[in-house]
Specification:
about 35% helix; about 120 residues; alpha+beta; three-stranded antiparallel sheet; 3 strands
Amino acid sequence: MFQHLDGNKDSLDVKIVAIAQDYEPKLISFDDDAEEELGDRYSNGDNVIPDWDPTPPAAGFILAAKFDSEEGPIAWFVRPIAPDNPGSSRERRLKRLEVATHLIEREHTSDLAGHIPT
């Protein structure tokens, strides 16, 4: 269903949904986060997702989902985006959605959060 963030449009859609709802999304890969013992078990074909406790990327992030993808287990974390600009929450969401959609249409693969107005 979802894949590792590699520029794939479906992967970026996850970020658009989170951003449009006033959340900053971050993806954590199992390979970068899991302890060696879990990595060994995963390599041997064990389902280790229930045992994996992914590390939040920074303060304020909460685990939104963790699941296996075509490239291995991944976890999505989110945290609220602080409303520091004038304008309604709806106006901010629409602007972020517009910018994010434009970037996807251009097949932009960099981190969208750095380009989305808050």
